[in-house]
Amino acid sequence: MVGLFFSIRRYRKKKSVNSLILVFLTLQGVIFGIGSYIVFFTEIYRLIPLFGSFGLFFFIISLILLNLSLEKKVEQKIEEVDQSEERYRNLVLNIVDIIIELKLDLSLTYISPQVKDLLGFDPPELINRRLSQLIHPDDIEKVEKALKNISKTKEHVFVEIRMKTKTGEDLEVSLRAALVKDKKFSKIIGVVRDITDQKKAEHILRDQYKKLKELDQFRSDLVRRTSHELKTPLISLFSSTQYLLDNYGEKLDKEVLRFVKMINRGGKRLKNLTDNLLDAYNIQSKKLTLKKEKMDLVQSIKDCANDLIFSLEERDLYLKEQLPDSFFIVADKARIEQVILNLLSNAIKNTPPKGLILVKLEHDERFADIIIKDTGIGLTEGEKQKLFKEFGKIERAGIDSNLDTEGSGLGLFISKEIVELHGGKLLVESGGRNKGSTFEAKIPLYSELAQ
Fold this sequence. Notes:
Helix content: 40-55%
Strand content: 15-25%
Shape: elongated
Structural class: alpha+beta
CATH topology of the largest domain: Heat Shock Protein 90
Distance between the termini: 104 Å
CATH architecture of the largest domain: 2-Layer Sandwich
Largest sheet: 5 strands, antiparallel
C-alpha cells in the first residue's frame, strides 16, 4: 500500500509513461497481496484466480508499454548521437586546418585527414609517432616546453613553428593546443594551421616598412641640409637688396629699382620657405621647443601688422584693430608672432582688393583669443579638412584672379603645431565660398607669471 501511495504521488508530480507503468505494477502487487491475505478468512478465495489473472494482464500491458517507451527513447538518443557525429565529422573534414590529439608524452593518437594535403602523410602513418618527428629540429625544444607546461598552467598554448613535410620541405605553421581532461585520462587537443602565405606577407611588409623609414629619413635629412645650405645665401640676398631699397631706393634708376624689388621679394619668399621647411622638420622630429617668457600680446599683434603694412597697401586692403591697451601672457614670443604673421598673411592673400581684415583680442579666465576675420574667398567644408595638414595648400587657380595663390602650404600647419605646443587650439570658421573666414588662436593663460 505504501508503494502504491508513493507511485501515485510520483505520477501526480511527473505525469509520464514511466510513472504510469510504475502505478500499474504496484497496483498489481497490491491486488495479488490482498487476494493472498483474504484466502484464509472467507470464501472469496475462489476469486483469487480472477485477481491473479487481472494483475497478470496489467503486468504484461505494463511491460509492453515500458518496452515501447524505452525503444522510443533509445531511438531518439541514437539519432541524436548520429547527428552529432555527422556534424563533427563534417566540421573536421571541411576545415583546412589539421586537428591533432596527443597523449601527455606528446605521441599522436589522432590526426585529421587534412595532413595528407598539408604534409603529404596518410593519417595511419603518424599514429603513435611522437610529434617531434614532424617538427624542424630547431623548433622541437620550443614546442615540447610549451606543450609539457600545459598540464601545469592549464592555459592555451600558441606557437609558430616549422614542420617537415613527407618530402623533407619546411612548412611554417601555427599550433594552438589545450589540455582536455576525461574521467580516466588527460590528453592534448591541438590545431595546426598553414601560415606560409601570412609569413611571406609579413616579410614583404617588414621590408617595405624598412624602406619607407629609410626614404623618410632621407627626405628629412635632405630638407634639413638643403634648408641650412640655402638659408645663409638667401639671408645675404634678402638683406643686401633690402639695404639697397632702404638707403638707395630713391637714387636708383626705375628699371634697376624694379629688378631690385623683384629680387628682394623673391629672396624674402625663399627665406620664409626655408624657415618653414626647417620648422616642419623640427616639428616632425619633435625638436621644436618653446622659450616661454612674459610678453605683451597686444604689442606683438601691432608689430606684426606693421610688418605687413606694405602687403596691405599693395593689395588695397583695410586692416581694423580691436585691441586693449595691453595684455600679458607667458609664451614663446617669437613663435606666437610667427603664428600671428602666418594668419595675417593668409588673410591678406585670400582677400580680394577693397576687402576688410579685422584683428581683435579677447580673453576669459583660461585663454587669450587672437581672432583674425576677413571678407575673402572663404572655405568649403572639404578645404577646412585639408587646411592644417602639412603641405595642405589649397589650389584656387581660376576662382579669383585677384588672389595671391603663392605659398608652400606649411604656414597654417606650423601655426597649428605652435599653438598646440602651448596647450592651445587653432580654429577656423567659414560660411562657405565668398563668405570670408575667421581664424581663432586660443593661447592658454599663465596668470602667476603674466601679472
